[in-house]
Amino acid sequence: MQPLAPPVPGPLALLDTTEGFGKRKRTAQWFVGSLLAVSILIVTIGLAATTRTENVTVGGYYPGIILGFGSFLGLVGLTLVENRRQMLVAAIVFISFGVVAAFCCAVVDGVFAARHIEPRPLTTGRCQFYSGEEGHFYDVHHTEVTCYSVSGQCQLRVRSNTCYCCDLYTCDSPSPVPVYHEFLGVRGCQDVLHLYRLLWVSTALNVLGLLLGIITAAVLGAFKDMVPLSQLAYGPSAPPPAIYNPAQQHLAFPGLCSPPATLPTCSTYPLPLQACSRLAATSLSEAQGGRSDFPPQAPQLRSVASFLPGEKPPPYAP
Prior knowledge:
Layout: E1 14-16, H1 18-50, H2 62-79, H3 84-115, H4 120-123, E2 128-130, E3 142-148, E4 153-159, E5 162-164, E6 182-184, H5 190-223, E7 226-228, E8 243-245, E9 250-252, H6 273-287
Parallel strand pairs: 1-7
Antiparallel strand pairs: 2-5, 3-4, 5-6, 8-9
Helix pairs in contact: 1-2, 1-5, 2-3, 2-5, 3-5
């Protein structure tokens, strides 16, 4: 019986040595860990920017949540053995969605910071801050301030805790490119400068997350089909378990020929010599597959029996 053939890996399984497999795993862990760190920074900067003011909404932290969850699945999948491929596929899917979200948010936040916020009046100190009544930050109060332009002057209604810039406010007609001239819910005009810087930092982090997410997804996609050679049984298969036969009093393996039967020996006790000879001939015939080389009229085998000193020989049997 031929030994069992070793298991053959699937068409998508790529073989690698144990050392190469460990090196690829460490590389994948490094990329996934870096993407997780960038995702945490994206969420932190995005939340800080979107809570800076009330009338400016920033969505740059959404890609960080998706990329962070995909990175977490990737780290878990790299530590598994049984369901590693399924977990890495799920991580690649979430990272792919995060890459798309990072691209969209990078474009939106970058365009908003470049087109709708003008930092020059803020840096030169030409913007004013209206705080309302002292000690009541959450109380809403309104007042009217006078803004001057080339065509004249106009009134601007301002809410409490607002930084407003009359240089950016058009009295006659709205600007073709809408520029934010007031920012609500701030503690000073410096918060608007912080918002401007945070928007650019969030844009840069989203671009970094976009590039790192693409590379990480490619690395995980190449690693999910890797199989180390140490996990494949290419050696000869193990022998089948021995079967114990109490009747034969020896161990036998399936598919192997049983050893030839031993010939019975004649006892030294007084027994008829002819009966012993017939018994030996019959056992020898059975051991040779039921065939006997002795002719039918062959003389009987005779053996010389030895007797101990003092014993009498058996009586003669014709």
